[in-house]
Amino acid sequence: MGFLDGRVAIVTGAGRGIGAAVSRLFAREGASLVLNDLGVNADGTGADTGPAHAIAEEIKAAGGNAVADAGDVADSATGARLVDLAIRNFGKLDVLVNVAGFLRDRMIFNMADEDWDAVVRVHLRGHFSTIRPAAAYWRTQKNPTGHYRIINFTSDSALQGSPGQPNYAAAKMGIIGFTASLANALARYGVTANSIAPGAATRLTATVPQDKAVTSRDDAKEQIMSAENMAPIVAYLASGASDWISGRTIGAHGYEVKLWNNPEVIKTISSKGPWTLQDLSAQVESSFRPLADGLPPSIFMQQLSK
Q1: Model pTM score
Q2: Could you tell me the residue ranges of all domains in the chain?
Q3: Does residue 212 carry a catalytic annotation?
Q4: Which strands, in side-by-side order, build the sheet including 191-199?
Q5: What pLDDT digit, counting tens, does each position of 120-158 carry?
Q6: Is 258 considered catalytic here?
Q7: Which fold has domain 8-259?
Q8: Is 172 one of the annotated active-site residues of the chain?
Q9: Pick the catalytic residue: 23, 32, 168, 246?
Q10: Given Cys at both, which of 29, 34, 36, 269 links 12, Cβ 3.0 to 4.6 Å?
């Protein structure tokens, strides 16, 4: 018995990298798959039907079930078609995994409008395109214990603010907010929604400038950073065992899996009436700044007295 026996999943960005690794593991664990990949270059240009069909054929040759689609995932018609393909070919849909995306990195002062729009479109609109019809389908099932799953891909670039990726960071942080909204809205229909922040060596990360120490050949590091290491946590979240987690962000980097905290208030200041600017400034400095600077209060006060 596979971990995902009987499950039906859509995977976008399935032709290469993390999407392909997820697709292969899902198939080995018994899932039937709808695999989408437009086959673009790392910057979103071009198109190639080959990657989606190649991974589908590989899975079928190994005895699995898969159909391929090479549509633009940011097109609403593609999202609707993927859901329809799952239902027509396999009778249902249980899992949606949104991996598809590309990069157009620039510092903010050098970024063109079209590079901002293209990256936001593929990541945010690409997730919306598939999630809307999937959610509509699950709503019609009226099954609050359906074990339905949405698994979205965010990035450390959003969580930690990559300076050369403002478009990508903005889109990926938007995915975290989108995922939280989905978790709250769709729980009554048996749906969980979570985000993955991956760390793996892919053709996208290969476009990011790195120093020689990082880019030099290191077989052990290549094995640790393989996209294949991202797939197990995705498979777990796709299974019926993960009902307990929703609205969270999980990091996966090499052999490590991390649970990120949700945003939370860490300090509140208050006044008995309208703030004066002087009082507010004093309170913000004394209460918020030590926390923002990561300093113990005693050390912070010593610095102020200098």
Answers
A1: 0.89
A2: 8-259, 267-306
A3: no
A4: 65-69, 32-36, 8-12, 95-98, 148-153, 191-199, 249-253, 256-259
A5: 999 999 999 999 999 999 999 999 999 999 999 999 999
A6: no
A7: Rossmann fold (3.40.50)
A8: yes
A9: 168
A10: 36
